[in-house]
Amino acid sequence: MTYSYDQLAQWDKQYVWHPFTQMKDWLEEEIIIVARGEGVKLYDTEGREYYDAFSSIWVNIHGHNVKELNDAIIDQLGKIAHSSYLGYGNIPATLLARELVEIAPPGLVKVFYSDNGSTAVEVAVKMAFHYWRQCPNPRPEKNKFLTLMNAYHGDTIGAVSVGGIDLYHGTYRDLLFPTIKVAAPYCYRCPFGAKAGQCEKECEQALEKAFAEHAHELAGCVIEPVIQGAAGMITQPPGYVKKVRELCDRYDVLMICDEVATGFGRTGALWAVNHDGVSPDLMAISKGLTGGYMPLAVTLATQKVYDAFYGDYAEMKTFFHGHSYTGNQLGCAVALASLELLKKHNLVTEAARKAGVVKKVLAEFNELPHVGDIRQAGLMVGIELVRDKLTKEPYDWQEKMGIKTCLAARKKGLITRPLGNNIVFMPPLVSNDEQLQEMLEIIKASIIQVTEG
């Protein structure tokens, strides 16, 4: 049975509550209903095509409708779609765990499955909190977390607690557990008043001060390594992640890295922590894990963390946490196929090369009078729109310049989503040079149309 656009749009507006969407605006706008995908493009019910310039919320690596990934799911579906992982194993989950440990940063040797990035972070936070209660020398007073301002780690309550974006998190403050927050290194607009790129010393001093003052109560330090995504694509100075690792070691604090957005080649390395040669104690991964095909997440842990939960049944050291779809066979099967494609097409190295292509094109954006700062880590890009280029005076958020620019781009055949007045560009890793340039030209033309039109 087929349905017309008018029918689908009517039912959508009547029955659906969309995430991160003001539904009053949604009900007043002409909406897009995606019908299919092919490569780096999406197609709506009316046959119009759009570049998927933000990888369908940062998850897509290989493009849409990829035969190898389709076949992996179909093959697994012919065997079993899902069975409980509580007290049972399954073939694709076992194989995927082995593959992930082989490619993970050294020392991460245990795989705990969940179903999305928020839960992967929740798992890491609970593991770190619990660790200090049953490690060889228990220290239950270590029950807080050091987090970065403007961090985003997901939307469940634990993940929100270690986040720091008031727009998303402020309303729920009374529900959250307290954390120790430290200013993140926003070198483009320094919280310490230094000129761009000259505040590394101040950032390190603030970080060290927080560790020194609170080490006795810190169970873990949670960071998005190299770049803070939802904050507006805020990049960290080289060596910052390594400094966090050094401080965690010095003050006996578990290091938790949220690689949900940055993993699987997105920053030009397989893991963002690889840029600084760092291994965390716990690492959350999701998004690109299945190539954007299925909900699946993993929390990777060291042997030290794992051993704190290992003991006789009567000791009650079990990690009492799980999900109905933990270790789901369809998700694990397509994740295995995705990892194979990463290797086959050398996508991580290619992503690093393509980042150079993107950087060269983005240099032209500096000529635009209403582009303030351009922040890039591999194929993760944020283009800041400002009222005044010289002073970098921002647009008032109520002017919705980011939203208007993305709507203009949509009419030109490109879909992305803004972060406030920052335009996100995060294309599938398989995008070729010509496609990358064409996508950026559409974004540039849309910026000009909205800010100068």
TrEMBL record:
<protein>
    <recommendedName>
        <fullName>Adenosylmethionine-8-amino-7-oxononanoate aminotransferase</fullName>
        <ecNumber>2.6.1.62</ecNumber>
    </recommendedName>
</protein>
<keyword id="KW-0808">Transferase</keyword>
<feature type="binding site">
    <location>
        <begin position="323"/>
        <end position="324"/>
    </location>
    <ligand>
        <name>pyridoxal 5'-phosphate</name>
    </ligand>
</feature>
<feature type="binding site">
    <location>
        <begin position="117"/>
        <end position="118"/>
    </location>
    <ligand>
        <name>pyridoxal 5'-phosphate</name>
    </ligand>
</feature>
<feature type="binding site">
    <location>
        <position position="417"/>
    </location>
    <ligand>
        <name>substrate</name>
    </ligand>
</feature>
<comment type="similarity">
    <text>Belongs to the class-III pyridoxal-phosphate-dependent aminotransferase family. BioA subfamily.</text>
</comment>
<dbReference type="GO" id="GO:0004015">
    <property type="term" value="F:adenosylmethionine-8-amino-7-oxononanoate transaminase activity"/>
</dbReference>
<keyword id="KW-0963">Cytoplasm</keyword>
<feature type="site" description="Participates in the substrate recognition with KAPA and in a stacking interaction with the adenine ring of SAM">
    <location>
        <position position="20"/>
    </location>
</feature>
<keyword id="KW-0093">Biotin biosynthesis</keyword>
<comment type="function">
    <text>Catalyzes the transfer of the alpha-amino group from S-adenosyl-L-methionine (SAM) to 7-keto-8-aminopelargonic acid (KAPA) to form 7,8-diaminopelargonic acid (DAPA). It is the only aminotransferase known to utilize SAM as an amino donor.</text>
</comment>
<comment type="pathway">
    <text>Cofactor biosynthesis; biotin biosynthesis; 7,8-diaminononanoate from 8-amino-7-oxononanoate (SAM route): step 1/1.</text>
</comment>
<feature type="binding site">
    <location>
        <position position="287"/>
    </location>
    <ligand>
        <name>substrate</name>
    </ligand>
</feature>
<feature type="binding site">
    <location>
        <position position="322"/>
    </location>
    <ligand>
        <name>substrate</name>
    </ligand>
</feature>
<keyword id="KW-0949">S-adenosyl-L-methionine</keyword>
<dbReference type="Pfam" id="PF00202">
    <property type="entry name" value="Aminotran_3"/>
</dbReference>
<dbReference type="InterPro" id="IPR005815">
    <property type="entry name" value="BioA"/>
</dbReference>
<dbReference type="GO" id="GO:0030170">
    <property type="term" value="F:pyridoxal phosphate binding"/>
</dbReference>
<dbReference type="InterPro" id="IPR049704">
    <property type="entry name" value="Aminotrans_3_PPA_site"/>
</dbReference>
<feature type="modified residue" description="N6-(pyridoxal phosphate)lysine">
    <location>
        <position position="287"/>
    </location>
</feature>
<dbReference type="InterPro" id="IPR015422">
    <property type="entry name" value="PyrdxlP-dep_Trfase_small"/>
</dbReference>
<feature type="binding site">
    <location>
        <position position="258"/>
    </location>
    <ligand>
        <name>pyridoxal 5'-phosphate</name>
    </ligand>
</feature>
<dbReference type="InterPro" id="IPR015424">
    <property type="entry name" value="PyrdxlP-dep_Trfase"/>
</dbReference>
<dbReference type="InterPro" id="IPR005814">
    <property type="entry name" value="Aminotrans_3"/>
</dbReference>
<dbReference type="GO" id="GO:0009102">
    <property type="term" value="P:biotin biosynthetic process"/>
</dbReference>
<comment type="subunit">
    <text>Homodimer.</text>
</comment>
<feature type="binding site">
    <location>
        <position position="152"/>
    </location>
    <ligand>
        <name>substrate</name>
    </ligand>
</feature>
<dbReference type="InterPro" id="IPR015421">
    <property type="entry name" value="PyrdxlP-dep_Trfase_major"/>
</dbReference>
<dbReference type="GO" id="GO:0005737">
    <property type="term" value="C:cytoplasm"/>
</dbReference>
<keyword id="KW-0663">Pyridoxal phosphate</keyword>
<keyword id="KW-0032">Aminotransferase</keyword>
